[in-house]
Amino acid sequence: MELISTTEKLLAFCKKIENENFITVDTEFIREDTYWPKVCLIQVAGQEVTALIDPLSSEIDLSPLFQIMKDENIVKVFHSAYQDLEIFYLFMNELPKPIFDTQIAAMVCGFGESVGYETLVKSLAKATLDKSSRYSNWARRPLTEKQLKYAANDVIFLRTIYEKLMERLKKDDRFLWIKEEIEVLQNVDSYKIHPDKAWQRLKPRSGEPQFLARLQALSAWRERQAENRNIPRNRVLRDEIIIEIAAHNPSSLDELKEIRGSSPKLAHGSMGAQIIHILNEANAIPLENCPTLHSKPEKLGASTILVDLLRVLLKIKSQESHVAERLIATTKDLDTLIMLREEAPIHAIKGWRYSIFGGMALDFLNGKVSISLENQKICVKKNTPDF
Fold first, then answer.
1. Are the C-beta atoms of residues 123 and 111 closer than 8 Å to each other?
2. What pLDDT was estimated at residue 376?
3. Which helix (H) or strand (E) segment is 3 a member of?
4. Which residues, at least 6 apart from 238, have a Cβ–Cβ distance to it below 8 Å?
5. % helix / strand / coil in the chain, to the nearest 5?
6. Which residues pair with 374 in a beta bridge?
7. Taking a C-beta distance cutoff of 8 angstroms, is the pair 327, 108 a contact?
8. What is the pLDDT of residue 296?
9. Interval 177-192 mean pLDDT
C-alpha cells in the first residue's frame, strides 16, 4: 500500500498497472457543505500494488490516472459505482470505460438488492471490515493509519469479490444479464447538470401548468445558484419553501415574507427581488409551453389486485432464479404489462427476463397459469383446458 501525493510517484504507479486486465477503484469524498463532492482520496488496486492517491496535494497532477481510466483494455471495477463515476466525470469530462459494478453483478448472483460491500467481503473474501473510519474527516491531513487501512481495504478485497462474481456469472451464463444496467451507468447524460429538470426531483403533487412553470423556474435558479457558489441546494432555498412559493405565487416582497418558512432576510435581500422576477417571468409562459407531469395510464378496475398477484409471481421467480426482483421488473413495469400485455415496451418481457419471469407473467395474465397454495407453499402451475 502506497500513499501517493506527487505526480512522479503517480506516473510510476500507473506504469505498474498499465497492462492489468482489471483494476479496482474507489473514492473517499465529502459533500455536506458543498454542491460538488470534495474528493479527498482515490484508491486503486492492481494485482500486486495498491495506491492511495491524494488529490488534495498541491504536488500532484492526476492526468496519468485519467489515462488509465480511459484505457479500454483495462476493466475498472467499482462497488455501487454511480457516485464514483460522477466524480471521475467531473474530473475528466468523460466516464471511465469499460466498467464493472459488483453491486449490480451481485444482484444476479443471489445476493439480493443493493447488497453492501461489507456483506460481499464477508461472503466472498471471507474477511471482516472495520467500518469505523467510514464517516471520518477525509479532508484532514495527515490521514491516520486507520483511515489508510480502511481506504485500502475498499479496493483490495474488491479484487477477490470481482473474481468470484465473474466465476459465478460465467458458470451460470449470466454475464450479459447485467449488460443493460452497466450501460445505464455509462450513460453520460446521467451525470450532466440539467437545471431545467431539477424541479422533477421535488415530485410535486399538483399538475397545474403555471404552478409547475413557477416550480421549474425557481428550481432551475436554485440549481444554478448552488452550482456557482458551490453550496448545497438547501443552503440556497429549502425544497419545501420552493414548493410553497410556487404554490402561493407572491407578487411582492411583502407577500413573499408572509409565506411559511420564509424570512424577512429572504424577502428583503437581493434573493427576494430575484424570486419575484422569476415568478413574473414564469407566470407569463403560455400554458402550452408549461411543463407537465408524466401522465399515468388509466388503470383497469382490477389493476391493483393484478399488480399484487404479479408481485407474488415476481417474488417466486426471483427466489427460484436467485436474481433480485428490481433487476427483473419494477412496479411500473408490472402496471405497464397489465395494460399492454405482449405490446408492453419493457425489458421484463425480453431476453433473459422473459425466460425467468416475463413469459410466465404473460401466461398468468392470459389465464394460462394460476397461482395457488399447496402444502403451505405458493405454487405456479399451468391451467388444464376444459373440453
1. yes
2. 75
3. strand 2-4
4. 261
5. 55, 10, 35
6. 377
7. yes
8. 55
9. 93
Whole-number pLDDT of residue 117: 97
| Mean of the per-residue pLDDT values of the chain | 93
**Which grid cell is 129?**
471490515
- Residue 300 confidence (pLDDT) above 50: no
Classify 99 as helix, strand or coil.
strand
Angle at 178 between CA 173 and CA 184, to 5 degrees: 160
Q: Please give the backbone phi and psi of residue 288, each rounded to the nearest 5 degrees, phi first.
A: -70, -15
| Enclosing H/E stretch for 148 | helix 145-171
Q: CB–CB of 84/69 below 8 Å?
A: no
Contact predicate 136/147, CB 8 Å: yes
Q: How many residues does the chain have?
A: 387
Q: Are 23 and 163 in contact (CB under 8 A)?
A: no
Measured CA distances, 301 to 298, 339, 365 (Å): 9, 11, 14
Query: What is residue 134's DSSP assignment?
Result: T
How far is it, in rounded angstroms, from Cα 313 to Cα 338? Answer: 13
Residue 121 falls in which region: left (phi positive, over 0), alpha (psi -120 to 50) or beta: alpha
In the numeric block, the cell 460491500 is attached to: 117
Give me the residues paired with residue 26 across strands. 43
Return the closest-CA partner of residue 88 out of 73, 111, 69.
69
Residue in this structure with the C-alpha cell 399451468, named with its chain if needed: 382
State what percent of residues in the chain have pLDDT above 90.
Answer: 84
| Cα-trace Rg, the chain | 26
List 372's β-bridge partners, or say none: 379
- pLDDT at residue 81 tops 70: yes
Residues forming a β-bridge with 22: 75
